[in-house]
Each structure stands twice: as structure tokens, then as C-alpha cells.
Amino acid sequence: MSNRIVLTEGSYRKLREELEQLKSVSRPQIAESLRKARAYGDLSENFEYHTARRDQAILNGRIADIERTLEVAEVVSDEATSGDVAGLGSFLRVRDLDEEEEWELVLVDPVQADPINDRISAQSPVGQGLMGKRAGDVVEVVIPAGTARYEVLEVRDA
């Protein structure tokens, strides 16, 4: 898998807004919490200080993740795909050939992914296997539980 991350224009914009919010609002709030906690004295047993430091580390990690994602992002139109070929934004109906169950899903970028609600990242193993497929195609996908086989029953715009 390459370092490239495909994002829709909307997801790219959403990440840029989140990054701006984290840098302009959250960072100063945490800095203020640290300043107040230091004023309480002994830092070795200062719960507020340790909590603020933990929050600062989490925030800095999220900022770094977003910056890394934006740096390698390839931005595509929100209406990047249409027709009968699976791509970002496509609605798919597939049949699990091993379980004989049908499944409906939408292929989305990693920012919009929500597997519980069948919004599957196009960069996940299942998403990668389904990208570019048409109705009638059969794909095998390596998943944590082994190998899954899916038949694409329908591809349409979501």
C-alpha cells in the first residue's frame, strides 16, 4: 500500500478545518490548563498537571496525524465516480460467497469511513478489493479472519 491517501474535496476541507480548530482553540486551552496546573506547585503529585500533559500529547498526536494525511492526500471531486464501476462514493450490493449473505455498502475515503454503518474505506482491504469492480465480478479479499470472497451484485452512485 502506498503512502497516498485519496480524499474527497469535502473530507479534505473537513480535515483542514479540524486542524485549524485544534491549533487555534484547543492548543491555547491546553497551554492555559498547563499554566494553571503548574501554579499549584509540586508537579510530581499534581493530577491537573499530568492530565493536561496527557491531553497535550493526545492533541499533538492528532495534529501530526492530520498534517501527515493532508501532506500525502490526493484530492478528488466529491462526485468522483459515476456509472457502473465501483469507486469513491459508489453504492455496492455484494454477496458473501462463503456465508451466502448479501451486504450493502458505500465506498468512502478514510475520513468518512464508518464500518458499523457500512461506509467502507476504499483504502481498507475490502475497499481495495472492490474498487474498480463491476456487477458480476468476484473478488477475494484477505481480512483478519482469513479470506473473504464477494460477488458484486450491483454498483451505482450513492
Helix-strand blueprint:
Elements: E1 5-8, H1 9-39, H2 47-72, E2 73-76, E3 90-96, E4 101-108, E5 119-121, H3 125-130, E6 138-143, E7 146-157
Parallel strand pairs: 1-2, 4-5
Antiparallel strand pairs: 3-4, 3-7, 6-7
Helix pairs in contact: 1-2
Task: Summarize it.
Helices cover 40% and strands 28% of the residues. The protein has 3 helices and 7 strands, in the order βααββββαββ. The strands form 2 sheets. Strands 5-4-3-7-6 form a 5-stranded mixed beta sheet.
Tag the structure with descriptive keywords.
single chain; 158 residues; alpha/beta; two-stranded parallel sheet; 3 helices; 40% helix; 28% strand
Characterization of this structure:
Helices cover 40% and strands 28% of the residues. 19% of the residues are buried. It has helices at 9-39, 47-72, 125-130, and strands at 5-8, 73-76, 90-96, 101-108, 119-121, 138-143, 146-157. The protein is elongated, with a radius of gyration of 21 Å. It is an alpha/beta fold and 158 residues long. Helix 1 runs antiparallel to helix 2. The mean pLDDT is 89.
Helix/sheet category: alpha/beta
Determine the number of helices (DSSP H or I, runs of at least 4 residues). 3
Count of individual beta strands = 7
Which overall shape is indicated by the principal axes computed on the Cα atoms? Answer: elongated
β-sheet strand percentage: 25-35%
- Spans of at least 5 consecutive residues with low confidence: none
Radius of gyration: 21 Å
